[in-house]
DNA sequence: AAAATAGTCAACCGCACCAAA
DNA sequence: ATTTGGTGCGGTTGACTATTT
């Protein structure tokens, strides 16, 4: 059993994708369509696993992928959405056209998470809060506490993660700092997560 | 110029969920 | 009711690049 897993691991190519591999994957999907990744992996001639193909397509090759640095409005929206939803990267990315969950997650971990901790140190008493979103309403922790985990010890890490940004109560209403761009609307978030409950 | 360190991001892994058999 | 295969998600790793010493 373990031997078979080991064999599969050595047969499947890993690591960074080469331009030729991208070309093969792209043209295969253009002719046969998306989905059935195991099939794509087998029939395209790529020595990649289905998961790897799916990830590459979703995060890099898919049309309309936006690359490059985040705009100020995207930055702003990520912060707000994270405050509301926690680490629900796919939901957050869903509100950022052309951005992937992986990209949003990376952006948060590299740019915002750090800022969060440093701002907390700089202004420990200045943390603004809105009571009902102190805890991201659909954070991983919340989902786990609804039966997805053992529900063991008290975990307050979410407080540290989400209280870091001052949240101006005055802009708690769905008003964007950036007119005619991405308008943050909590209703979107709610319609996104309620079906999951 | 070279080595050490820090930052970034693409990709992998494990787990959970769902539908079909 | 159980098993199996496909898919999606979030956490983590590691390769690569930039910066500092």
From TrEMBL:
Keyword Nucleus belongs to the record: yes
Lineage top rank: taxon: Eukaryota
Compartments (UniProt record): Nucleus
Pfam families per record: Myb_DNA-binding (PF00249)
Domain HTH myb-type: 12-61, 62-116
Primary location class: nucleus
Domain spans labelled Myb-like: 9-61, 62-112
Record bears the keyword Chloroplast: no
Keywords for the protein's UniProt record, in alphabetical order: DNA-binding, Nucleus, Repeat
InterPro entries for the chain: Homeodomain-like_sf, Myb_dom, Myb_TF_plants, SANT/Myb
GO cellular component, one term: nucleus
GO molecular function, one term: transcription cis-regulatory region binding
Protein name in UniProt: Uncharacterized protein
Originating organism: Arabis alpina
